[in-house]
From TrEMBL:
PANTHER family: INTEGRAL MEMBRANE PROTEIN, INTEGRAL MEMBRANE PROTEIN-RELATED. InterPro entries: YczE/YyaS-like. It comes from Clostridium coskatii. This is BCR, YitT family. Keywords: Membrane, Transmembrane, Transmembrane helix.
Length: 226
């Protein structure tokens, strides 16, 4: 593969991270809950003096370390580049929160619209990362590793993984605030819609073809990432 093609692929990947950051920001600003994978960082950002993006970065590092611990010497060397995903992802989440700082819907229909816009942005980010076919977002990488190790379907592990994160967020929220924050009906809507919207993007942009690798993220059967 030529250097130009590699540069283009990484540009597409980073663009995907950018749209994922915007999508997560919009789903969060909808006040209907955030995406499952971002539920824990969102709750923690309400408790401690770190931003949503900074906690997203820290969680990405934790996911990467989990992958390395599980695979050990079998961890693909090229996937060590995932360490650079966290900072970009966290930066784009905080950038999105800054861009959409004026968004504060009060009417339920307005909240739904903001949530849907976030889902479409998040799904576009997911799709761009898939067609880039370079490295994997740690949030999806850890699910892929667990699925491979257990012999279970990616989609099933993804559902269990996202559900676990939501439960952790709920427990932290109840313990700290005495009520549930970050996880609401929007979280479920996001989990269901993002994967299906990604398929729509795939249909629309079907001229973009890519070859799957053994370690590459499979179709998003249950939700989004990151």
């Amino acid at each position: 593969m030529s250097k130009l093609k590699i540069i283009i692929r990484y540009f597409i990947f980073i663009t995907g991270l950018f749209f994922m950051g915007l999508g997560i920001s919009l789903t969060t600003k909808s006040n209907m809950g955030t995406s499952p994978i971002n539920s824990v960082p969102y709750v923690l950002s309400m408790i401690f003096h770190l931003t949503l993006g900074q906690f997203t970065f820290l969680l990405s590092i934790l996911f990467l370390l989990t992958e390395i611990i599980i695979l050990r010497k079998d961890f693909p060397k090229e996937q060590f580049l995932q360490v650079f995903v966290g900072p970009f992802f966290g930066l784009f989440v905080d950038l999105g929160m800054s861009i959409f700082r004026f968004v504060n819907p009060n009417i339920y229909i307005e909240k739904i619209i903001v949530l849907l816009l976030g889902c479409f942005a998040l799904a576009l980010g997911v799709y761009l990362q898939v067609i880039a076919n370079v490295i994997i977002n740690p949030g999806e990488g850890v699910v892929k590793v667990i699925a491979n190790k257990t012999g279970k379907k990616f989609g099933n592990i993804k559902i269990m993984f996202d559900s676990t994160l939501c439960i952790i967020a709920i427990v932290i929220s109840l313990f700290t605030f005495g009520k549930i924050k970050a996880v609401r009906e929007g979280t479920i809507i996001c989990a269901v819609l993002v994967g299906n919207i990604t398929k729509i993007y795939s249909f629309i942009f079907k001229r973009f073809k890519y070859k799957k690798t053994k370690y590459e993220t499979e179709s998003y059967e249950s939700s989004e990432s990151i």
